[in-house]
Write a structure and sequence with these properties.
By secondary structure, the chain is α/β, with parallel strands linked by helices. The protein has one domain: Leucine Aminopeptidase, subunit E, domain 1 (3-Layer(aba) Sandwich), CATH 3.40.220.10. It is 35% helix and 22% strand. Helix 3 runs parallel beside helix 4. The chain is globular and about 30 Å long. It starts with a strand and ends in a 13-residue tail after the last helix.
Amino acid sequence: MISYLEGDATLPVLRPAIVAHICNNWHGWGKGFVLAVSRRWPEPEQHYRSVQSMQLGTVAFVPVEQQLWVANMVAQDGYGRDRLRLDALSKALEQVNTRASELGASVHMPRIGCGLGGGKWSQIEPLIVSLLDVPVFIYDYHNVADKAAATVNALSKDGISCDTGWFEEV
């Protein structure tokens, strides 16, 4: 079962927990959700960079806090757009499910594979539903500027004029 939340996937609502995300197999760490992971904990990136060879479909479970692990799932072949490999993601999710079951943990993640990996949520969500039989929380993170822009767009569609000079991206 998936629960959708608005917020930051690096701040799981329950413990024990696994924060899962997708990595590539070319040692490229520096864009997307990994930036949020690295801001919160140095260990997942350190582990990722220390591994000599990364095979698609493998997962490293990195302890970061009491009853909290980050799952570095290798499911992207290289870096750049459209590099997500659904077969590798399936293998990785099976491992996440096994570990979460062993730990009595829930799984927390953003909409994995839909950003830099180029995947479609309509393909990824069914994999998660079919492969994870533990509580899963999907986080949609929206910053203040995004919310303000959405409000302006909604009001504009209703014919209401808005001065957008009051907010800026930070």
